[in-house]
Every structure is written in C-alpha cells, then in structure tokens.
Amino acid sequence: MYSPLASGSKEQHKIIILTAPSGAGKTSITHHLLKKIPQLAFSISAATREARAGEVNGRDYYFISVDEFTKKIKANEFIEWEMVYEGKYYGTLKSELHRLWKKNQYPLLDIDVKGAIHVQEQYPEESLSVFIEPPSVKELRRRLISRGSESEESLQTRLNKAEYELSFINHFNKVVVNDDLEEACAETEALVRKFLGIPL
Questions:
Q1: Given this model, what pLDDT does residue 12 score?
Q2: What's domain 14-196's architecture?
Q3: Fewer CB within 10 Å: C terminus or N terminus of the chain?
Q4: The CA-based dihedral angle spanning residues 187, 188, 192, 195, taken in that order and rounded to the nearest 10 degrees
Q5: Half-sphere exposure of 172 (CA within 13 A, CB side)
Q6: pTM, full prediction
Q7: Where exactly are the structural domains of the chain?
Q8: Across the chain, what does the average pLDDT equal?
C-alpha cells in the first residue's frame, strides 16, 4: 500500500532502496554503506513490533502501536506500508524522507520487497533499487537458524515468504548475490556511488 509523496522538485529527491528476504544480509550491507558514504542517511521505518535487544526507538525504528499505525495510514502519512506478518506493520513515513532531504542527505531505505517496489514505482528515475539475493534458500535457512531467534514455525514462515519475495527479483534495478559479505558490500557500494555520482 502506498501513496504519492508530493513536495518540491524530484531532481533532488534521490533515494537508495535496499531490499532482500530476511537473512540475506541486507542489514549488514546497509551498515557498510552508511559507514562508507556519509552523504547517505538511514531512513527510519515505523514498526508495530516490540523492540529487540539493543534496538532504540528513533534510531532503529519508530516503534508505535497498531492503533497509531492505522491512524497514520488513514491520515495518508506513509509513502509505503505493509503488514509484513500477521498483525505486524512496517512503513516509511513521508515525514522521514522530508527530514533527510532537508538535511541534504540521500535516504537509504532498508525495507520489505513489496514496499521497495511501491517506492520505486513512485520514483523510477530518482531511486536506485538493489535486491540482495541469498546464494540459495538452503543457505538462507542456515543463516536464519544460526540467529537462534526463530521457532520452527517462524522459520518456515520466513522461508516461505523468502521464496515468494525471490519471485520479484526482476522488478529491481540491480541484483547483488551475497555469497561473500565483503564482496557483496563492495559491489553494492560501487553501484550506489555510481548512481549518486560520488567517486570512490
């Protein structure tokens, strides 16, 4: 679900979109990009789930209630939002992108596959979308198990969702296979620098 983001010239509104199935390494690559390219800024998503250990409200996510989230949907405050899992909503607030653009920074969106497609559809020329692909579903399963935070049921839910998300791989500008994290980081960084016109 999404709605257009209107305001100002789109020429300055460049957006970097990273998306991937859960466990593919998207978060690690996001951290690499933020460290290496200071012109980028992390776009903080809104989420209705509980904060995990070490997560901070306003830094990792804007943690809000389901009631507050649905009110924001009705008020047309999101550029994109999804119910990623039953009762768990995630979304990108229009105000967040404006906050970063006003600081002359490029928002880096680390978001769900469907949300990424919605943002890209609204900003086809101004966005670079990169799909981080795991080497295989078998490897994805191994990575998710190694986290130690998944029950058998939640693991299967994530794997089923991953297989579904992989079917959208051709919707994105670029695909980076994360077989080796260091190489995947370097490849993604090169793509982003080229798109933004930022030399190495």
A1: 63
A2: 3-Layer(aba) Sandwich (3.40)
A3: C
A4: 60
A5: 26
A6: 0.85
A7: 14-196
A8: 90
